[in-house]
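A reminder from the course coordinator: this example appears on the midterm review sheet, so study it carefully.

Given structure:
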């Protein structure tokens, strides 16, 4: 009987080993990731780093296939495809998603963050987790906060050195009421538009201006159809690396963990590439003949004060607790 017991134990061990080689918890998955920006945007570097990490963890089972330039539809359209479980993932700005999760509007508040470092601390901490919970309730798993970045204004009319220079300027804004009101408040003729339409609208002069980080003005070639770039840094907006909750729930725990861990690896790479490329992109934009200016510290103070009405107007929609909470975190960070 002893021999039988020992043999059974051995068989159990062998079976366990046989059933659990290193990558048994991973199935072959093709994960479509859609992007509005182009492949040479630093999100491309982030996705490469994420793929390398996934290859190591899954033995090559988890594969990302990236689509660029809005090939699978714009931010909002792709996000809805995730919610209905027909597409796996999207890297999207948070701003067009406020109709789904109003609290995300907190990131659109003008001049909220003073540095990328502040933004990282807020997004990668409990505040970011709180918003992730709201996204989850809406059928969206945010794997990590990637970077879109500080937004600057480009236009075909004149240098913007004070907010009055925006008077009457036809500025494309994202489909987002905080941005709409921020620019209306400066006297601009603000026009909400999906990202995919911006280049041709600038080219045909249907609009005069748009606002995005330098790396986007560079990689989406807006500098080819704009004459002025003004460093306004009026908002820092994140990218969300969203996964369809309906699809995510069918994945094994190991697959889910690998996706979360590797999205964080990709995020770090993406952020550091942006930090380097920001400068290079601006140089490239200027080399193409675009005139560049910054705002004076006095004007920065004026424009910031001018923008406070937008906070008052949108606090109730975003959620007073959400706005108070981020302001408290920022006040503590600035102590
Ligand atoms: C890319 C967009 C874009 C955003 C915008 O899909 O719409 O201006 O900043 O980069 O998310």
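Designed residues:
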């Amino acid at each position: 009987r002893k021999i039988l017991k020992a043999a059974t134990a051995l068989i159990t061990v062998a079976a366990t080993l046989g059933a659990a080689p290193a990558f048994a918890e991973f199935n072959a998955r093709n994960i479509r990731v859609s992007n509005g920006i182009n492949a040479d945007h630093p999100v491309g570097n982030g996705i490469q780093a994420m793929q390398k990490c996934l290859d190591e963890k899954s033995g090559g089972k988890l594969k990302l296939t990236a689509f660029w330039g809005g090939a699978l539809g714009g931010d909002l359209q792709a996000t809805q495809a995730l919610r209905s479980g027909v597409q796996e993932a999207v890297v999207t700005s948070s701003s067009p998603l406020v109709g789904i999760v109003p609290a995300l509007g907190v990131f659109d508040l003008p001049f909220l963050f003073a540095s990328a470092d502040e933004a990282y601390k807020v997004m990668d901490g409990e505040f970011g987790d709180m918003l992730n919970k709201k996204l989850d309730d809406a059928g969206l798993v945010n794997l990590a906060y990637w970077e879109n970045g500080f937004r600057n204004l480009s236009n075909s009319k004149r240098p913007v050195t004070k907010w009055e220079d925006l008077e009457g300027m036809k500025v494309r804004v994202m489909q987002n009421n905080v941005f709409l009101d921020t620019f209306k408040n400066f006297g601009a003729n603000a026009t909400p538009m999906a990202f995919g339409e911006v280049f041709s609208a600038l080219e045909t002069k249907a609009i005069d201006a748009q606002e995005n980080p330098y790396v986007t003005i560079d990689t989406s070639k807006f500098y080819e159809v704009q004459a002025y770039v003004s460093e306004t840094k009026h908002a820092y907006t994140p990218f969300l690396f969203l996964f369809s909750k309906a699809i995510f729930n069918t994945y094994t725990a190991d697959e889910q963990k690998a996706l979360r861990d590797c999205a964080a690896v990709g995020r770090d790479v993406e952020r550091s590439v942006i930090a380097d490329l920001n400068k290079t992109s601006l140089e490239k934009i200027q080399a193409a003949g675009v005139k560049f200016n910054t705002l004076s510290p006095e004007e920065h103070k004026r424009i910031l004060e001018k923008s406070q009405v937008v906070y008052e107007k949108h606090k109730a929609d975003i959620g007073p607790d959400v706005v108070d909470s981020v302001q408290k975190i920022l006040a503590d960070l600035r102590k």
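Residues 36-37, 75, 92-93, 148, 174, 195, 212, 216 surround D-xylonic acid (CB under 6 Å). The longest helix spans residues 253-287.
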